[in-house]
Every structure is written in structure tokens, then in C-alpha cells.
What we know:
The chain is mainly α. The chain has three domains: 175 residues, Serine Threonine Protein Phosphatase 5, Tetratricopeptide repeat; 114 residues, Serine Threonine Protein Phosphatase 5, Tetratricopeptide repeat, CATH 1.25.40; 100 residues, no CATH class. The strands form four sheets. A two-stranded antiparallel ribbon has the order 1-2. The protein has a two-stranded antiparallel sheet with strand order 3-8. Helix 8 crosses helix 14 and helix 9 packs antiparallel against helix 14. The N terminus is likely disordered.
Amino acid sequence: MKQIYLVFLLIIGFLASCSKDFLSTDPKGLVLESNYYQTRDEVFAGLVAVYNRLSVEAGGGGNTYSNKLGPLNSAADECWAGGGSSTDMNSWQSWNTYTLSGAVGPQSEFWKIDYEGIYRANLLLFKIDGDIRDLSATDKARFTAEAKFLRAYFYFELVRLFKNVPLITEPISQSQIYEQLQATPEAVYAQIEKDLNEAITDLPNIVLPEENGRITKGAAMAMLGKVILFQNNNGRMAEAASWFDKVNTAPQYSLLPNYPDIFSPLNKFHSESIFEIPHTAAQIAGWWAWGNFSGNVYVHMTGPRSYAGPQYESGWSFNTIIPDFANYMRKDPRYKYTVANIDSLVAKGLSSYAPGYQNTGYFIQKFAPLKQFKAPDGEPALNYPNDVIEIRLADTYLMEAEALVRAGGDVSKAQTRLDQVRSRVGLTSKPATLDNIYEERRLELATEGHRWFDLVRTGKAATVLSFKGFQAGTNDVLPIPLNELNNTKLQQNPGYN
């Protein structure tokens, strides 16, 4: 029988360590769930295990998953899948060409990782109401809020990617897996909003430096605004805008004056970061740790193959930037911080590399493998320290502007938010129309994993992605993984086999 990943095997393999970033934890062995959650430290370790699903870089179906940026960038109009050949990371290639099926694509990895996170969150929320030694009321409230935020995040990922997914809010047995039905998207969104609203109350406004990576009130409010926005109900856009406003006016957040500083591993958890997923080179992982390392392998994957020259390390040439997009960005001040034009270095005799599949000469700069961040120990490919910022202030500025315009609300305020993003990089004002806001999102957030979702939710995907083979009504979502259909009551999404 094929393995079903709705439920994580009843073990917790990650115990807490706060000497580094919150998620920079080391495996300490296996502990049976039935004997766990007896003390405050055990509950905290269980919470770390929920967080761990955010930063996982491998271990999906076929052990081919890096972080979600790779597949999402492959699916959008910014990048090709690239790599070594047309079958290298076939899960990415199939989304790149929209030849997805239940058996082929990145869906197994997304499904597995998100449902593992949900199971761990459900287990913690169930156990935390037990008789736990030395767990204060304050810690209980905060841990509960964090678990609810994380469960909401994982369900938001699932409902956006698959639309029709089971809604599970408590631990279930192995036998119950096979009886689960898909909930309506409306029901899933309602649960997401419930979790976030409840989480906001007990989350802190800021965290201590040693707690960087833990969820704050601002992250939950930003996520709630985003969840409402993505449901595309214009009658609720004023509500979405109000949540974004709470974040955008909070004193702890401000745009960084220098755009490239957003992405530097030397500048983590800065004032523009609202929800950041940390990675570390301190774990010194080797290939033996495949599936459990905490470095950002995606960084290595984006580098040019067999590269020799200044600034960059060699990589595997995935997510080469499509020339049309590079040309589109060329006159924008953010171009050189988004696009690495390696061919220009070759033309000057400064470097060389081996062209990979779908080579364009353009590579992703935001996550490029830079020499200065190459880990001195362990396997370098597995140990890049680049964090992934899920939500940052420029994003919430633009989402607030969009929500205000769609609500027919304060257009002058929408204009201010758009202008703030543009003026940071020296650009003049443009009218705050939806088209201009969407264009600004494309330029500001390029290669950060937002573009595909934006195209789908705005109804533009069928036109913009037609050159890749996108079919409306089918490719708006991923197929349900084939192995999840075996002996279960789940139904495949329309248009897939």
C-alpha cells in the first residue's frame, strides 16, 4: 500500500535549541508521542516541530523538494525550470510546461509537508490542554496562538494550491485517514480565519533577538488580511485593508532604504520583515542529513553550472530567468538586484560556466549563491544561510493599496502606499490603478514566490501563461497527489488523471 501523508508518524524528532535562530535546531533522537508533552520544555519542542515544516528543504515524495520557490518560479512567467536536462527535477519541469498529472508534479511534496505541519499543530493543540508540569498560562496562550497561526498558514498553502482538501482540526488515527472527505474551500478559509483571529490576541508585538523566527501579532494580522484578499470578495476588501493598515502603521515596521539589503543573510529579521523563515549554515549538514538540514539548498540550485569567476559559487542552473522578463525589468532600478546577468561577465572575460537546460544567461540574483556566504564546513550546497521572507512590508503596502482600490475606498491612501514602494527605489509616482499596483508587485516581488498566485487570483494566468501551456479551469490548481487517492475517499481535481 502506498504511503499516505495526511498524518505524520507519531514521533517528534526535533527538540528546541535557542542558541541560534529559533528554527536552527538539531535532531536529538526520537520520542514516542504517547510519552511526550509532559513538561513545558516538551511542549515547546513540539512547537518547534511544527515550525520545522516551514523550513524543510527536502524529504517530499521522491526526496526532490527544495523550498517552494523553485516550483512556484518554474510555474510563473519569470523563470524556466532550468536545471541539467528536461527531466532534471521533473516535478518542476512538469509545472513549467503544465504537463502535470496526479503522478507527476510537485504536489506530493506540498501535500506531505503541509499536512505534516497540520498534524503536528493539531497534536500540540490537543495535548496542551492536558496536565503539563511548569507550563505557565502565558506560555500556554502564546504556544497555542503560534500553533494556530501555523495551522492556518499550512491550510492557506493547501487551499490555494489544491482548492479541494480535507479539513482536519484534531489528531486522527491511521484508520481514519482513509475516511476523510474534501471540504469546501469556503469551510477551509473559515477555519483559517478563525485560527488567525484567535492567534492575534495572544501573540506578542515583537520578539526577543534570540526568538527571531517566532510568529508575531503583525505576522498574523498581515496573514489574515492576505487570506481575506485572496478570497476575491470585493465586499470584504475594506476589511482586508484594515488589517493591512494595522501592520503598515505599526512602529516596528519600516521599509529599508536600500532594496538589496532586504535579501542579505547579513541583515536578517530587519524592519521590513513581517514573516520570515530562517535558514542556517551552522548545522553543517552533509548529504547524510538529506531531509533534515536547515540550510537553504535553493540558493545553490539557482547558481550557474561549473561557474568560474568572481562573486558567485557554482550551482545547478535551475530557475533561469526568461529573457522577456529580464528585458521587462531592465530599466527598473531593482533589475540588478533581481537578475544576475552572467553572460555579461562572460562577454567581459571575467567568468565562464556550463550552460544548462533552458539556459538564458540570466539567473536569480536575490537567492544567488554568493562566495561570501559559502559554508566553510559540511556540504556547501546544503548550508546556505539565506532566509525566505514570506511577507514583507512592501508586500503589505501593495496589498493594502489593492484592497482599498477594490473596495472603492480611500484612493489617496492607496496612492500613498504605492508611492512609498516606488520612491524607495527612486521611482516617481504612478496612478494607483489596479493594473499599476499589479505591475508594481511583479517588479518589487519578482522571484519571491508571489507571481503565480497573483496571476491565478486575478484571472490573468490563462493569458499570461499561455506560452507555457496553462489551461484555465484545470491549471488554476495542482492535481491531488495520486498516492493520496489510493484507498481513500478523495476525488481528483477536474482536468487531471
